[in-house]
Amino acid sequence: MIRMRLNGLDSGQEDYLLHVEVWKWNGMSWKAWLGQQQSFIRGEEEQFVTIPAEPGLYRVDYSSRPWEALFLVDQEDENNLQVTKLHPAPFKLKEGMLWGYINNEGKTVIEPRFEYAEEFQENGLAIVQFKGHSGLIDRTGREKVKPIYSFIAPFSEGRAVVSDAKGYFLMDEEGKPVTSKRYDFLNSLQEGRALFYTGLESGKILYGYLDRQGKEVIPAQFEDASDFKEGTAVVKITSGEFALIDTEGRKLHTYNHPYVGSLSEGLLPFQETENGKYGYLRMDGTIAIQPQFTSALPFSGGRAVINTAENYGNAYGLIDKQGKSIIPARYYGIQQLGEDRVALGTPIYPDQPYRGSRYVIADAETGKILSDYPLLAVNNYDRGVASVHDAKETYFIDKSGNRAAQPPVIPGAGTLSYSGNLIRADVDQRTAYYNRVGKQVWKQNAVIPLRPPYSVIERKYKPNIDYLVYYPIVEGIANTEVSREVNDRLRKLSLVEGAGSGGGSQEFSYTGDFSVAFFRKNLLVLELNGYKFPFGAAHGMPTRNYVHINLRNGKFYELRDLFKPGSKYVEKLSEIVGKQIANDPQYSYVFPGSYTGVSANQPFYVDEQALYLYFAPYDIAPYAAGFPTFRIPYAEIMGLISTEGDFWQSYH
């Protein structure tokens, strides 16, 4: 590389940010982008750029701006030593999708080895998942709590709610339980109290509260209860009787109404009669706003969202604490965004309101619409900006409701969020990180290296906002014709066709993706998954398809290819699966009498040690069970396997 000084670029300011891009002439245009360099430059410092030490024509573009508070200071630990912010990042690998952590420069500092990874919390711990279980790591990647739990919630007031097969408990920051027993349900600590409930043999549920040490300071005695807020909590004593209690369980006020909701800014939503209209009470039980709404949400910033539509309809508005209307109750939905802003939603397609809303931004104090540009999703304001997306792009808006100066702007639908010094972008189901001046410092890889010359390349197909597919292209197959046939078939199996016309006439949405499930020797197993959601349905239907490809000859294997010709593999596999259903408690969810055996072309996949057979949702079990899967070690069926066959030899 050659270091080249940039002379005469001093803007006259003491501190400013210099943004540089280097381009190379490719014979037709300046399209060979060689990267960006940017740094805070003091007026006295040397200014330079690096270019490759190769012959050619190069162009340097630059711009400068004043040094503003663009970057946040890194976190500090208890010894006031600077701690580098780490960011969770997903990697597509030949072992599948794994998560690791990157630093502010986009370099991997904790290698990808987790099934999922969350942001580091203020205590220096992060929740990670491994083999379907949750644990905790520190900033060096070391395990602080082994991944043995079914769930770990973020820490609150020095404690985390954790669950395992026995129930819920509180854990301290050293990974030690602080509760003496497990609970049927447990909420995070709020103001020194954690809401729990326990089930009685009669089937009745009673609520109580733990303190930070796990002691039951308010025993289980309430029919319903809420988290503490503003030093109080609303509990249900019995039918038609509610109370406001303090953190010691003392009753401050009692309310004799069919329903009383949580306290917010001194007011409580309530119903005066059974199934009647909603209004708001003061803490002393007097009526502040007469019942007149079909639903009434908690107050925030001196305002509350209410609904006036009958029969579960949507006619939402915004009121102040005197019950005065700020925004008329005529919107399909209203979101309080914070920082005195709200989003007003109306159906994209009036005859199909279930297909989502378009939003405009309004001033929550005056009700004035600030920007009527239609947005398809709006998130809460943070530091004067809110993440939004429209039909084409994801970006920030400012408090005027217009596109903010803060980059980035990314094609696709998703969210932007602050992550320390960086901005995290989760757009079209892919993750990337940008610095505060819009430079991309890391993005999810689109090439999965296998073994030279083989790799899998990700391609994106998004013909309209309701259809998104990532499909694989296998590279490295020597025969060009075979390569084309393999990739054409993968494209069709990924449902890159049949997207629908888009717009109001489209009847469903669809998302599809893939991952490498197994790779060994010449066998590549790809998992193709999808989710089709018919608009207006209760839920969509997931799909899963494993394809087994021999990278030498391009052959796609079926289940029968694993076994000797003429062998009774169907009967044997059916018997094994039947015994697992009958004897293994993990399959207790299978519908009685629904399993009648496996088919000759049963959905399956293989790895180094076993054959796996699976069923689609509803085939033999409830939808919530997903894809019931049965593992069959090769040792149990070795006499039936064609060990000299092409399939077996492709990975042995």
Q: Work out the strand percent.
A: over 45%
Average residue-wise pLDDT: 90
User: Quick one: overall form?
Assistant: globular
Largest sheet: 6 strands, mixed
Q: Biggest sheet, strands in spatial order?
A: 46-47-48-49-50-51
Distance between the termini: 46 Å
Helix content: under 10%
The top level CATH class name of the domain at 447-557: Alpha Beta
Spans with pLDDT under 50 lasting ≥5 residues?
Answer: 11-17, 28-45, 65-76, 78-82
What is the H level of CATH, i.e. the homologous superfamily of the domain at 447-557?
Fervidobacterium nodosum Rt17-B1 like
Structural class: mainly beta
Number of helices: 3
In the CATH hierarchy, the third-tier topology of the domain at 447-557 is known as: Heat Shock Protein 90
Strand count: 54
Radius of gyration: 29 Å
Q: What is the CATH architecture descriptor of the domain at 447-557?
A: 2-Layer Sandwich
SSE diagram, text form:
Layout: E1 2-5, E2 15-24, E3 32-42, E4 48-51, E5 58-66, E6 75-76, E7 82-83, E8 87-93, E9 96-102, E10 108-114, E11 116-117, E12 126-130, E13 133-137, E14 143-149, E15 151-152, E16 160-164, E17 167-171, E18 185-186, E19 194-199, E20 205-210, E21 216-222, E22 224-225, E23 233-238, E24 241-245, E25 251-255, E26 259-260, E27 267-271, E28 278-282, E29 287-293, E30 295-296, E31 303-307, E32 316-320, E33 325-331, E34 333-338, E35 341-347, E36 357-363, E37 369-375, E38 377-382, E39 385-389, E40 393-397, E41 410-411, E42 414-419, E43 422-427, E44 430-434, E45 440-443, E46 447-451, E47 454-464, E48 467-475, H1 480-493, E49 508-520, E50 523-534, E51 541-550, H2 569-583, E52 604-606, E53 610-614, E54 629-633, H3 646-649
Parallel strand pairs: 48-49
Antiparallel strand pairs: 1-4, 2-3, 2-5, 6-7, 8-9, 9-10, 11-12, 12-13, 13-14, 15-16, 16-17, 18-19, 19-20, 20-21, 22-23, 23-24, 24-25, 26-27, 27-28, 28-29, 30-31, 31-32, 32-33, 34-35, 35-36, 36-37, 38-39, 39-40, 40-41, 42-43, 43-44, 44-45, 46-47, 47-48, 49-50, 50-51, 52-53, 53-54
